[in-house]
Design goal:
about 220 residues, alpha/beta, six-stranded mixed β-sheet, two-stranded antiparallel sheet, 6 helices, 8 strands, about 15% strand, globular
Length: about 220
């Protein structure tokens, strides 16, 4: 009788332990994944500007929030920059090209699972608005990632545009790691800019992109 009771207790404790382990890993679904975040522009390169607002500042804020969100889900997150600077060498004659090449090399050499490049769009007309994801065909997984992220974003955010294939961008055509360019909105559109400056929206954007990343790895 004591033996059966002991076995029953061991069985129950085993079930509890398994459930705790399962719950733990459910809380950190990106454990073991390495994600590279590229906050566009920086330093002498402000990117697109609207009045006194520079693209480089908003991309960094969004990237930092996204980093924190992804790390909370178990991922190891790397940044091409964590402050207001570019990656070009002082002796470089073409600083923009050198900056992009260093980003390419950093991502390719990192052996990360995916990269996400964060930017803001701009257009002469203020009528254009919305988030849009661009991908290069250098890696077949890029389109899959673009679709999964876009579908996820559509479930929680408005003004999400369809994905677009662009193969002539210097940086993305040279990265072998799966990844996409996320144009988070138009800095030249007042509605988009209002949202992108809002900390709560930045946080919501980071959470939703993170959900898309989970969906991609679960695909």
């Amino acid at each position: 009788m004591k033996y059966k009771l002991s076995m029953l207790i061991i069985f129950i404790l085993s079930i509890i332990s398994i459930n705790k382990v399962y719950a733990y890993f459910c809380d950190i679904p990106l454990l073991g994944k390495i994600i590279y975040l590229d906050a566009g522009h920086g330093g002498r390169d402000p990117g697109a500007k609207y009045n006194d607002i520079a693209e480089k500042d908003l991309t960094l804020e969004i990237a930092k929030k996204l980093k924190k969100e992804l790390e909370g889900l178990g991922a190891t997150v790397l940044l091409t920059r964590d402050g207001d600077y570019d990656l070009s060498s002082k002796e470089s004659s073409n600083k923009k090209r050198n900056d992009l090449l260093k980003r390419v090399n950093s991502i390719n050499n990192s052996k990360c699972d995916i990269y996400l490049s964060i930017h803001l769009n701009a257009y002469p007309s203020d009528k254009w608005r919305g988030l849009q994801i661009f991908y290069d065909q250098i890696n077949p997984k890029n389109k899959i990632l673009a679709n999964v992220l876009t579908d996820t974003l559509k479930t929680e955010l408005k003004n999400i545009r369809e994905i677009k294939n662009v193969n002539n961008y210097y940086m993305y055509s040279r990265i072998n790691i799966p990844g996409v360019l996320i144009e988070t909105g138009f800095i030249t559109n007042s509605s988009d800019l209002y949202l992108l400056k809002n900390e709560k929206y930045q946080q919501k954007l980071a959470k939703t992109i993170s959900k898309g990343v989970i969906n991609y790895f679960n695909n």
